[in-house]
């Protein structure tokens, strides 16, 4: 048998490398730190230890500059909105910084524009309020931080609010409850994008086994 020629179709197929898929974690002034860092811990461990799965994760802010979280932690960004790679998944955290976003036409327009090109939009905590204000949750199941459930309904009365779920997977939109619930959502995301066993590997490594003692 002759070796495969560089001009053969088989050689081309072998040489072709599938593009890596991208998850972006949004950060902004007033972001609830664990809303962003919890999913980041899950997803960065997964993507760094299992590069063969074909996924990368990065943080982005509006201008690419660091931001100051709700509890004063400074968080960096790898990209701005303008230079970020095309997203396959967006994670929109919550926190007090989402309140002005509900009245910010530029941010709401950015979210609506992404809806047209990003296959999977996810949120943590009050990030879902931004989605509701951008009219992404009309007639859909969703959740948010327990203290903001009424606000979610006020923003869009058609939202079918799940008051008990840690996260709600409604197909191309996933919303989670408050703060630590973003970790559960991120582990679900790993399972959905790969398989349950991979998510269990990540969960075991980060030793996430919530057992409240109070």
From TrEMBL:
Matches recorded under Pfam families? DJ-1_PfpI
TM segments?
Answer: none
Residue ranges of the DJ-1/PfpI domain? Answer: 22-191
Lineage, top-rank taxon, reads: Bacteria
Query: What's the name of the protein?
Result: DJ-1/PfpI family protein
Q: What does the record give as the organism's lineage?
A: Bacteria, Bacillati, Actinomycetota, Actinomycetes, Propionibacteriales
